Amino acid sequence: MQPGALLHKEGPKVPVEVRVPAELEVLLQKESKPVPSPVRGLALIDTGATLSMIDEEAIQHLCVSPVGSVVLGTAGGAKQSALYPVRLAIVIPPNPPVVAAQIAQITCGPLKPQGLLCLLGRDLLQHALFVYDGASGRFTIAF
């Protein structure tokens, strides 16, 4: 396989963990209510996406209520989508998760069929250094 072939085929993916927002976690703990367990999976870094997206099953698991809505421009046309608050961490075992962002507004959609938990869009990438080195088949992301 040529250097960069897997990166070219699959795209830049990172393992992530998505949790309820910190404020909601504290509130649930104070009220002695269960805190939904984090959801782990792969996130595709998507420089073409204005907003980040999470799989709709994952957002249902987290029991997070929408905080607004947005009209998304998709390949299939305009689509109304709810916005949700989440806390996202990048997970590089054996290290503990590194919180990349507390995202106030993430959209959701059917990503699970693609083997993805999230798309990381420019709303998150604007706070990161992202280097795509296709020639060597590597990428770097730092927050």
What do these coordinates show?
With 143 residues, the protein is of the alpha+beta class. The protein has a single domain, classed as Acid Proteases (Cathepsin D, subunit A, domain 1, Beta Barrel). Helix content is 18%, strand content 44%. The protein has four helices and nine strands, in the order H-E-H-E-E-H-E-E-E-E-H-E-E. The strands form two sheets. A six-stranded mixed beta barrel has the order 1-2-7-3-6-5. It has a two-stranded antiparallel ribbon with strand order 8-9. Strand 5 and strand 6 (98-109) form a beta hairpin. The radius of gyration is 16 Å and the shape is globular.
Features:
18% helix; 44% strand; single chain; two-stranded antiparallel ribbon; Cathepsin D, subunit A, domain 1; six-stranded mixed beta barrel
Number of strands: 9
- CATH topology: the name is Cathepsin D, subunit A, domain 1
CATH level-4 homologous superfamily: Acid Proteases
Order of helices and strands: HEHEEHEEEEHEE
Question: Which architecture would the CATH scheme give at its second level?
Answer: Beta Barrel
Task: Name the poorly predicted regions.
Answer: none
Estimate nothing, just give the exact number of structural domains: 1
The radius of gyration over CA amounts to 16 Å
Counted by DSSP, the helix tally is: 4
**Name of the CATH class:** Mainly Beta
Helix residue percentage: 10-25%
Structural class: alpha+beta
Strand content: 35-45%
